[in-house]
Each structure stands twice: as structure tokens, then as C-alpha cells.
Write a structure and sequence with these properties.
This protein has helices at about 20-30, 35-40, 45-50, 65-70, 90-95, 105-120, 125-135, 135-140, 150, and strands at about 10, 35, 50-55, 75-80, 100. The chain is α/β, with parallel strands linked by helices. The longest helix has 16 residues, at about 105-120. This is HPPR reductase.
Length: about 160
């Protein structure tokens, strides 16, 4: 498919501090003609008619009434993060625009972090790690402060 035949999607930018990750942009380019916010603002008249969707990455670009009014052919806003608290769903739906979301995209990593925090808390891993970096001489005055004996030896921290 030629680039002109692909549906146009508005994104904040590619790369940089707040832009869509370059790998993700490459994937999007297979299915969409990407228009950055800078390109859009530089030529609103022409670009506004082409844009059919907005890809929101890390809550950007900000979706407000002015932006929605400037995009007459907008059909969908794709949100890449979990949760849509940053989007005014009532205002967006009043324009006849649908919103998509990825509610389970980070369920496994969130569970992993939760388990890691519980284990670190139960084993006082943070305190043990601090003591580990203070060096063996610091342990002489603190007998078995927060760690098992094997932590005081040269064993592996963790499980």
C-alpha cells in the first residue's frame, strides 16, 4: 500500500523525551501514515482532513476540545497506556469519536513488581542491600541486624 492510501494517525512525535518509541513508530508505519503534531500544526488546513485517528502515548498529545474541533474526520483515539483518566471520555464521545485502551497490557509486569515489593519487604532486602554496600567492617558492630547468616557471607541475595 502506498503511504497516501494508509489512514493517517496523529502522534506527538517520534523518539525524544515524549515521542513514540522508534520501534513502536516503525510498527505503526506499517499500518498508518504518521503525522507528528509539529507537521499538523505547520499545515492544519491540509492535515486536518487526512487524520482519522490519534495515537496517545504516555498521555500525549493532550486531547482537548480545540484539537477535536480541528479534526473533522477523526474516528478513533488509541490510548497506549493503562487507564483513561487523562481523557475526557464524555467530551470525546460527544464528537462521535471512539476510544480504545489496553487494560491488560501490563498486568503481568504489575504483578511481578507487586511480588518483588512483597518479597523485598518481607526479607528486608533494601536494608540488607544498604549494609552490603557499606562493607564487611560495618557488620562487626551489628550482629545479624536484619539478615540471615548466609547474607553476611558471600551468598546470593534474593531467593
Amino acid at each position: 500500500m502506498a503511504e497516501e492510501e494508509l489512514p493517517a494517525v496523529l502522534i506527538l512525535d517520534i523518539g525524544g523525551t515524549h515521542g513514540v518509541l522508534e520501534d513502536l513508530a516503525a510498527l505503526l508505519k506499517k499500518h498508518f501514515h504518521l503525522i507528528t503534531m509539529k507537521e499538523f500544526l505547520g499545515n492544519k488546513e491540509e492535515m486536518s482532513k487526512k487524520i482519522q485517528s490519534i495515537f496517545v502515548f504516555e498521555c500525549r498529545p493532550t486531547i482537548d476540545r480545540e484539537l477535536l474541533e480541528s479534526l473533522p474526520n477523526l474516528k478513533v483515539i488509541g490510548n497506549s497506556g493503562v487507564g483513561v483518566d487523562h481523557l475526557d471520555l464524555n467530551m470525546i464521545s460527544s464528537f462521535g469519536v471512539k476510544v480504545t485502551n489496553t487494560p491488560h497490557a501490563v498486568a503481568d509486569p504489575t504483578a511481578d513488581i507487586g511480588m518483588a515489593l512483597m518479597l523485598a519487604s518481607a526479607r528486608r532486602l533494601v536494608e540488607g542491600n544498604v549494609l552490603n554496600f557499606l562493607g564487611p567492617s560495618y557488620f562487626l558492630g551489628i550482629p545479624h541486624f536484619c539478615c540471615d547468616r548466609d547474607v553476611l557471607s558471600e551468598s546470593i541475595f534474593g531467593m
